């Protein structure tokens, strides 16, 4: 039973860290819209837009290695600070894409910084999981996770929303804003680095094991094997969403970047609401995962029907519902994994989680770009809807371990 503690019982260091992560999430939300819009605006290529989305998912393929490395780091606070400083620097390098007239040089000037930003982002995300673990006790774990995810989602919404007015001043101003946000997060972290280093001083990095220990431990549980199979399919199609919306808004609807900000913003709002709602859900069974996948399929099909008839404003509530279901499920799964993972293996286990669950996004971004070269954007959402509905139905019928477990 989770105690009904108020947020005032959460450690002060955790509250500060939540604030810091919210600033990072604001930059992440802004980057989510900026990257695809920059690619499609400068290259007018569906294929390159898909490749760009795929590239930012490359770090997920090796996340288990990053996680194992993080476990072995004695001073994780310094590594966290370095990751923020590196993201700041490489964000500013995106400016070089604005001064080239050759498509291949534009692509290189965008893809290389984006890839490195994503790698350092994976480092700071993994270390964040470690800090969450050591700052939260069992009695306030669920409440702390819900608060952290909820506030980060709201900050991400803010970052997405800010893109709408800033893009009117040009891509250059938007890139400067992104770099400033991450620089600010680095400076703020310097004020709390000592506190986090103190909490981190007792870890034993020698116990982390080899780079594949997290994967072996992760797959040693039958329920996680089943969850991984579902996640591979779901993440493959979820990886197509941003590319699909970017192309649909820019080329199919012929609308400006502000509407992409609205779409992704309402998705983030749904995720934030779902994350906060998760704290009130008790004894949710694993069958919720299968049901959620079916619901996603229905909602993707609805996007296809609405967009085919150029009804782009009614898309907003549908996208909100997709985010709502996603926020609830992700918060519950994250809390379950934190509760059942030892502090000494946080990095390797969560790295394996990212690799197995999200690495497929690397392929989905590029494949969606290829599909959209030959098909109109709404067709992509029809494909996503049919595939996810089938996945949810099949998993509900045959994955007995997942259906029985309590998240």
Distance between the termini: 13 Å
β-strand percent reads under 5%
CA-based shape: globular
Radius of gyration: 20 Å
Rounded mean pLDDT is: 80
Low-confidence runs of at least 5 consecutive residues: 1-7, 201-208
What structural category arises from helix and sheet content?
mainly alpha
In short:
The chain is an all-alpha fold. It has 18 helices and no strands.
Describe this structure in words.
The chain is mainly α. The protein is 79% helix and 0% strand. It is built from 18 helices and no strands. The longest helix is centred in the N-terminal third of the chain and has 33 residues, at 103-135. It is globular, with a radius of gyration of 20 Å. The protein starts with 11 loop residues before the first helix and ends with a helix. The model is unreliable at 1-7 and 201-208 (pLDDT under 50).
